[in-house]
Amino acid sequence: MVVHRGAAPALAPEVSRPVQTADTSLTVALNRKQVNALSANYLNKFLKGERVKYHFIVGKKYATLVGDTKFMGVKVRFAINFIPQMTKEGNVLLKAKGLSVGQLNIPLKFVMGYIAKNYNIPKWVSIDAKKKTVLLELNRYSKHRSLKYSAEEINMEDGRFRFLITVPTNN
User: Fold this and answer.
1) Model confidence, pTM
2) Coil, strand or helix: which one is 89?
3) Environment class of 169 (CB within 10 Å of its CB; exposed 0-12, middle 13-18, buried 19+)
4) 127: which DSSP letter?
5) Where are the alpha helices (DSSP H) in 55-100?
6) Backbone φ and ψ of 59, nearest 5°
7) pLDDT tens digits, residue range 129-163?
8) From CA 31, how far away is CA 70, in angstroms rounded?
9) Cβ within 8 Å of residue 108, ≥6 positions away
10) SS3 state at 160
């Protein structure tokens, strides 16, 4: 029997699914200082040896991406403020609310598109410059690890962050 590729079923797109609470789950509560330390530790390891460095800092109102880039041969510092929200899948959606690029007046969509194309971004992070959002797919981060991660609470004002960590069982 010969089957043509055109007649073969299409591969289903990868869908991010929420982590299910199980007997092997535990909740980790973090404060703002702990989230910033965790972010700094991850980015220091991820960006080791990279020419371009950036930081992700969680404040009282915004989560801010701060970095340096060259514009017309001049080093320019940029900062993008985001408002974090949880998705129903337990991921974190960052909605851009403000931008500072030195003394330059550059559209936010342009800067986000530039970062997406020119910066080393983890595979589990996706930037949508048109929507001015960044999706931190904790479910995708978990894909090749033995633990599964999911956001349960993001309270910027009080500095409370809870995450569900599940150890999969092979029953």
Assistant:
1) 0.79
2) coil
3) exposed
4) E
5) none
6) -110, -165
7) 999 999 999 978 866 677 888 999 999 999 999 99
8) 34
9) 80, 96, 98, 99, 132
10) strand
